[in-house]
Structures
1.
Amino acid sequence: LNDALVKGGQIAFGGKTEISSKYFEPTLIAAISSEMSVFKEEIFGPILPILTYNNLQEAIDLINSQPKPLALYFFGTNSSHSKKVMDETSSGNMVINDCVLHFLHNELPFGGVN
């Protein structure tokens, strides 16, 4: 979080911490750039960076320019858009209009690609 803030990120929600209880409020960070750790590294914590794009192809190109994600979550009502993302990207898991759904069944695989 500190790295993002120093490099121009902005807290859109949350950000409160209590060191004594090891509490870290769920936090949304806007104005993300590719130089920030939250852009480059896996996040194991209550931080969600918000990346913006002008059109769907720009988002797909960004996904494809990075190492393949373990999980990809698509939110939208246009089924042709979700199909386009599914067809043109590669990830360990893709979930449409939900999140962490693939964790609910312990027999389903997680991680890796395709």
2.
Amino acid sequence: MSLSHAAYRRALRVMPGGNTRTSNFEKPHPTYLVCGSGAYVTDVDGRRYLDFQNNFTTLIHGYGHPSVVDAIRRQAGLGLSFAGPTVAEIELAELLVERVSYFEQIRFTNTGSEAVMIAIKAARAYTGRDLIAKCDGAYHGNYDVVEANVTTPPLAGTERPTPKGEHSGVARSALSDCLIIPFNDIERTRKIIESAADRLAAIVVDPLPSRIGLIAISADYLTFLRNFTLRNSSLLIFDQVLSFRLGYGGAPVAKPNFPDLCAIGKIIGGGLPIGAVAGRTDIMAVFDPARADRACVIHSGTFTANPLSMAAGLAAMTALPRSEFDRLNVLGAQARSLIAEAFASVGINGTVTGEGSLFRLFVGPEQVASYADTFAAAHDPRLRSVVARMRERKVLLSSIGLGALSTPMTGTDIAYLAETLEEALRSLKSEPT
């Protein structure tokens, strides 16, 4: 019995399903990790892997970045958390506001899910409306109103769809305030949201939604959403919890289409728990407890803006100048090119999507351009087989084929990724059908 298997058996006795994150669930058991260094992690059985999971895209510097580790140690010596604010949160807020032109003020949270949640609450307070629109197949965390139609079959027709909760814990009452729209489809979206325009508080959209397939939002669709919200006094909310790693100022977007609010997280915490909402000063004012003349959103949290996360985040973001984003994005383009070549070389149909330092591979389809394509491909068992075979060869990807680069990686690591994928595909092809 492996030590990972033994750990899983222990976990089953004290945790439902043996885990605390559903995303970690695997059969017959997950791989338990014990340490990381640079671009590599080591499991409890001593096996060392090249890690393209990076805690689900969070660890843009991989493991053990000296500046981040030093910042955590220094802050730990001063204090782990306080009841009062610290200068560290001001410093990280200042850095983020300086980098992103449409960030005027920031509110920190503990997770990306919480960031989306309070952005939605801010939109409701600011507009006085309740209805929230989100895209079919998009994931926006664990807040009931947007925890709908994440893995359900894609929309059909142009009638207003009935939202479907992602699991039985989603309140049916919350779903009545959710409107599902098709990503990158202007005409079908228009027909769905026009009849509800007077009740719409906000549209939440991810510029590069991972669950939809790491397909970028089209410029025309974004322009349509921006114009619609402006015309109908609704807000446009970006969810860049994952896609903020695409560039120095997050996902690139033209000035006329800047969102009103943006939820971010993951890379801004240096590997520690964090999230944030940023946006226009007049909207962010709903969080100001000193303003009694308008609606106020009460938002607190024992560990919100905790100094460890602030210090780690400041160090991590400071170590990401424009040049480092550019270098990482060049490596990302190289990875996607070599992945495509691997499919062609082996003669198995497949494709790769993504931008910047992100990629997602698919086995089966030659093109993935919509959530319908992604949904169909997700049910091909060959993908999980390829991911498992790559893990056997000491390369880690997420179970859906999602990968994220980290700054310690070089062209050698990207070449090894492609080589390992090609070996996994050849092994798959040699099996009897």
3.
Amino acid sequence: MPLPTILVADDDRSIRTVLSQALGRAGYQVRTTASAATLWQWIEEGEGDLVITDVVMPDENGLDLIPRIKRARPDMRVLVMSAQSTLMTAVKATQRGAFEYLPKPFDLKELLSVVERALASPARTLAEPAPPETEERMPLIGRSMAMQDIYRIIARLTTSDLTVMINGESGTGKELVARALHDYGRRRGGPFVAVNMAAIPRELIESELFGHERGAFTGATSRNPGRFEQATGGTLFLDEIGDMPPEAQTRLLRVLQEGEFTTVGGRQPIRANVRIVAATHRDLRQSIRNGTFREDLFYRLNVVPIRLPPLRERVEDIPLLARHFLDRCREDGLPAKMLADGALERLQASRWPGNVRELENLMRRLAALYPQETITGDLVDQELAEASHDQEAETSEILAKEPLADAVARHIRHFLAAGQDGMPLHDIYDRVIAEVERPLIQMTLAATRGNQIKAAAMLGLNRNTLRKKIRDLEIPVVRGVN
């Protein structure tokens, strides 16, 4: 059997050389070119088994070439590589029929793995037409490897209606990801309806989701469609799904299983023609162990999980994000500002508990409150210090108002209420104790910088007892810190 031939198109000589050598060592025949015209000529002549093309080339955009390749050679797999590294690049590559999108710089082992998978995969039909080209604002900002992984997942999901679960801390952009899945997906022509589970009173949540009939309850003077009906043909975004009460969880599970629902007070089933995207900042597996979230519902929602990294895990994106927010401030009529190198260093050194939302708010304050055209590191330090002080004061005020016993009692009531709503409850004593013990031990270990001897002394525990609790509670241990 002849060796597969790979056609490489990139106007960067060094990349052509590296790819030619790496692919040659892997046992492939390789032909390289700096132009899209030559690549197209080879395609028309029946050359090659797989294409690796750059996006930006002197004579043509590589993305524009993909549909022509797929029409002429439907069995030809195309890998796209780009230094632009944006969500739009990933989406366009996927929707135009690319097998995979690789942001530059990429790992050669990853490239070879993708080449092997592409050659072994069945031929893929031409993707559905991409949405009309627009100059709309980029929905997601960042070129870190963590964000590149998210871009590729979103791009792959634009051709399906799979249910998605987005997990991430507050302020990481979960709704932006949900909107991107909708705006570039098959249901982009339908409505995008967002519901925040934490913001709806418990007694109204079923009516809010599924609607109600006239006379269904006191005050129901007319029929009211719920969010499922409002989202027909589009996407229903269930934000903070971990705060959904048990009775609503049961109804949502039934909708996902049966594909239909009834309004409150109604009898006629209504088809649920929506794509579900859920999001939470909670650890739902822990909620399952606590008995506050249904395991069967979790697996129905967690078909495709997406984890959004906190800002502290992608600090290389902070300069890009900060400048983006300052540009938006200028568009909104605020004075134009520049960031000094020292300011960028301070921004990248922060922990950002509020994540991207906190960074955006900081940029708005700096643009609005200071006359200087250039934002210095000292100004950033001043604003971050004030924000931290305000947050600590607010936390102290809350703690002062709510004694520990009251906080524990509130959570115990939540456990017991879950049992009254039909959720399985067992071993409540052990679970409540574990809920208190875990953060207590974790924070004590953090205070002692991982020193278990000091932590045991602070807790009044035998060192072996502490070790057993760390093991039983599955608490991560930092080794070698004194």
